[in-house]
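#lab-general

N.A. 3:47 PM
ok so I finally got the sequence cleaned up, no stray characters, all 140 residues accounted for. can someone with queue access submit it? mine expired

B.Y. 3:52 PM
send it over

N.A. 3:53 PM
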Amino acid sequence: MGLAEDLDELAYLPEEWGYRGDAVRDAVKLFNEHAAAGLEPSPGRKLDRLPLDEPPYYVIEAVPAITFPFHGVRIDDRARVLRGDGEPLPGLLAAGSDTGGLWNRAYAGGIASALVFGLTAADTATATATATATASHATD
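B.Y. 4:20 PM
back already:
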């Protein structure tokens, strides 16, 4: 990780990191110029087009990876897996990275889906088990 107190310090990234610091600095400056002028910055940022003009700047190397595939089985608001016709498959619940169709404009994180729909699936399973036990007891 590196820290630059202003844009010009970006030019001094260590060569052994494998990046040209001056190119990084110039790219951020160009981005800021486009954003400040109301032009489409490059790379594009649909949801946040403000200039990156408030130091300090942190330089962090990141390795892109797929944490989960954004696509998966369709579920309803009770975490029940849906068939092709939109009806729930009895007894099948899903949460987290197994679900799909939850993200539209931005990424919310796989853990958020796991937490929300994991708890929802637990509530659904409990309610189903309670209803089944009550129905079974009523017929005895």
